[in-house]
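hi! just following up on the protien thing from before. the input was this:
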Amino acid sequence: MDKLAAMQAFVRVVEAGTFTKAADTLSLPKPTVTRLVQSLEAELETQLLKRTTRRVTVTPDGAAYYDRAVRLLGEIDELESSMTRAKVSPRGRLRIDVGSTVAQLLVIPALPDFYARYPHIQIDMGVSDRPVDLIGENVDCVLRGGEITDQSLVARRIGDFHLIICASPDYLKRHGTPQHPNDLEDESHAVVNHFAHRTGRIYPFVFGKDGEKLEVHGRHALSVNDSNANLAAGLAGLGIVRLATFQAAPYLASGALQPLLLDWCADSVPLHVVYPPNRHLSAKLRVFVDWVAELFARSDLIHRKCSLPKPKPEALRAPAPQPADALATVD
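and the predicted 3d structure came back as:
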């Protein structure tokens, strides 16, 4: 029996909750993972896992063995990473997950710089705005905006992105331009709301000015849970939207969207790199976390607040592009 392989298989089964998921993340056949764990139990002469038709749970002996196995595997990884070659040129595969807008507009365009520095690191990037089960899906880290509610995770704050309120010229022609946040509550206006994936809770529009804070829900015909869908709705004239300044900038410059209520700052959103507490911060993960933190620290659009410059007058007079044309620049 390859005891190290058996130990790795056992740890992944515990973290994933099923043999099938563990086999997928290890790129091994399920029978192989099953045999490795059974061999480990036979070697230790104790039951490590309780198996049901739906899920695998860990026994008390298994929990004690898991804690030590995770530490031992982490030390082995650290030993390998401490070798001179790993220090000079980290290598290996990273699984990360990034919100769609952040991935498309900020991270992916900057990746040539990352690969120039670290050519031997392979990145498997999930791109979505959905919550990710880091342990169950064997993801090394995620980039997410918003407060971190799961206190069991390790989160490094790498910046804040700021929101701006916008609408298409066509929408403003039909509904008028709001002069105060409370105008968004009027029946004459509509907003495009954003709702939480898991709970469906609608996030209100939040404004601040001179120490005053307002929360506005507004009337909506459409709510979405994806940042690109939110942008598409704004470009289509479906309502007033709030966008990250880095996402809105090209559309404000072209006149496809117009900024609103600039004397009221929309809320900002903290941005974190998040990884599991028992996931060893290997050399490859450490250099990625440091690189992305550096990337966001020097991004003017990430740190630009609601004083985003207004489009030039000639841009405002230009006809807004059709939604399909505007969306083509995002795809």
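The chain has 13 helices and 15 strands.
Residues 306-331 have pLDDT under 50 and may be disordered.
cheers
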